[in-house]
Amino acid sequence: MAALLPIPTPARLFHQYHHRHRQPQITIPTRHQHLCLHPLLLSSTHPILSVHLIIYKLSNPLEFEASLMSKEITLCTSIFLLTAAIYHLPAVHIPSSPRKELVQFLRKVTDLVPGLHAVDIDVPLTSLLKDDNKFEQVVLGREFHISLGRTVPIRVHQRDSVLTMLRQKLQFQKMYWIDFAKWVVFVNDDFTRSFLSMEVIAGGLAEITKQIDAVNEVYRLHNLPEFYKDPRPHISVAWASGDVGDFMTGVVEEEMKRFSLTGGSSRKHIFTCKFGGVKCRIGNRTYEICKFQEL
């Protein structure tokens, strides 16, 4: 195997380019200038974002095309760092039977909480209020996943080790039922978004917690950040900008009371699904970790 050369820092690459091209005219858009302070700062949720911004800021204004700088910085993103996310399979699908009630509940919440969007596809819920069928399909008809670990940056040489250990730790899994029993609101770590979610609080909680513990052990051995100390397995349906968790929680609790008083469902859970296994997504590839064994 060929030895890997040291990764040149952006400052060194820029110095090399400046030396070859005596008077480069670099214009960084004002809206991105604050990002120059820490150009290679990697976040846990978007570990490649800052590196791509470097390519944009340095190569686009100068039209480097296939210059040494753009090649080597791109190399950093594609070879040395990947992102890893671990979650349940198959994807959680909300059954058709509770969807009509869920649509009515979510419509009420949408009227009271400004700026709610469907998770992942980022469609404003207010744009769907005129058509219940479309609302149901867009908001509730998609796939959901239960996260078993943080989305983290890993180095390429760690990939095989992480996958091997995950398969060892999670190889003996049996089928169990998962009850989504409670509407809750979560706020992300940097307080930029608040999420309307359905939480697992009873059925399946013990099994999922054991799986999270196994993932944490693998992460710990690779010096990766572990999951939250008191995990609360859930799927998120909608989000709003900023830290509006207290306000959203008040709206949800009030609407749940009204919903039950007006003849809403008396079931102890929102819906139930079956555990099918675990997958791990690294970069743009998804790896099967385990599938359940029949009880």
UniProtKB/TrEMBL annotation:
Pfam families: HVSL (PF09749). Keywords: Hydrolase, Lyase, Nuclease, Nucleus. Coiled coil: none annotated. GO terms for molecular function: 3'-5'-RNA exonuclease activity; lyase activity. It comes from the Eukaryota. GO terms for cellular component: nucleus. GO terms for biological process: U6 snRNA 3'-end processing. This is U6 snRNA phosphodiesterase 1. It comes from Coffea arabica. The gene is LOC113727349.
